[in-house]
Design a protein that fits this description.
Layout (H helix, E strand, L loop, with lengths): L1 H22 L5 H33 L4 H12 L2 E6 L8 E6 L7 E6 L9 E9 L3 E9 L15 E6 L5 E6 L7 E5 L11 E7 L2 E9 L5 E9 L9 E10 L2 H11 L4 E4 L2 E6 L1 H6 L4
Parallel strand pairs: 2-8, 5-7
Antiparallel strand pairs: 1-6, 2-3, 3-6, 4-5, 9-10, 9-13, 10-11, 11-12, 13-14
Helix pairs in contact: 1-2
């Protein structure tokens, strides 16, 4: 297209020059040559301008290569996708973030489709994009056709991705553009400082909620709410996630905060996990 444009413009320039030559007179030859040079200069500038515009349009029209983005994400993250399953998901639609420091890829994002009343549902990861700080995971959700033969049982479709690092910003979206909510994050090594007065906790099985209580220099209290989760019943390893903190003037206010968090069950002292105290003991100041 560039060559065709150049030829058309060159032909126009020659025609114009010939027209001037035939209609001019000998006494005007010098002036004609000057005019001819100026005209050619204008035509050349116009040709270069059109060529630049054509090149810009052609470049903008070229489609982007999505494979480069995928390769970039793989190089930066070092991830692997876990095959989809109809078990192990959540009854809620959303995603969870887990950490297991002993794995080669210590971080795992489990994406749950939610509880379904039959089989035939599926969810899979179709795209992973990472720019160095933000991670966007795209998933495809599939539902059974009305004529499909499906299992008549509750299913919990989910899929997962394992990562070598945990990005600062994580988004999970469906191919239709619907964003998944982060249901919870379970990370190892949450920092609980020593020197706590006691811990008020409640729960059982796979989830425990704890409120660590500290005394402050002014005679008040500081508390930290922590959720501890194990990946399976009876497992020895627990993941602690700090869920919030605050201050209180009295022990009654600490108990109110623990009750709101869901940890208001019993009380333990540092280094003594055999003796169990009641919340009333804590309020009364017994052994604390």
């Amino acid at each position: 297209m560039k060559r065709i444009t150049g030829k058309i413009i060159s032909a126009a320039a020659v025609s114009a020059a010939l027209l001037i030559a035939f209609t001019g007179c000998a006494e005007q030859k010098k002036d004609k040559k000057t005019d001819d040079k100026e005209y050619k200069s204008e035509v050349t500038e116009e040709s270069e301008s059109e060529t630049e515009e054509t090149t810009t349009e052609e470049t903008a029209a070229e489609p982007s290569d999505t494979s480069d983005a995928a390769d970039s994400a793989s190089d930066l993250l070092g991830y692997q996708i876990i095959p989809a399953s109809t078990e192990g998901g959540s009854d809620e639609r959303g995603y969870y973030v887990f950490e297991d420091a002993e794995d080669m890829c210590p971080y795992k994002i489990v994406i749950a489709m939610g509880e379904r009343s039959t089989g035939g549902y599926d969810i899979e990861i179709t795209d992973v994009v990472y720019d160095g700080s933000a991670l966007v995971i795209t998933v495809k959700e599939t539902s059974p056709d009305p004529t499909d033969f499906v299992t008549e049982a509750f299913t919990y479709p989910c899929c997962a991705i394992e990562l070598t690092i945990l990005p600062d910003d994580i988004s999970v979206v469906s191919e239709s553009g619907v964003e998944f909510e982060c249901l919870n994050t379970y990370l190892d090594g949450s920092d609980i400082e020593d020197g706590w007065l006691c811990v008020i906790e409640d729960g059982g099985g796979e989830i425990m909620r704890k409120t660590y209580v500290y005394e402050t220099a002014d005679g008040g209290y500081e508390y930290i709410n922590v959720e501890s989760t194990t990946t399976s019943w009876g497992a020895a390893t627990w993941n602690d996630v700090i869920k919030g903190s605050g201050t209180a003037d009295t022990r009654e206010e600490v108990v109110d905060a623990a009750e709101e968090f869901g940890s208001c069950g019993f009380v333990l002292l540092p280094g003594d996990y055999q003796t169990v105290y009641t919340v009333e003991d804590f309020v009364a100041g017994k052994a604390f």
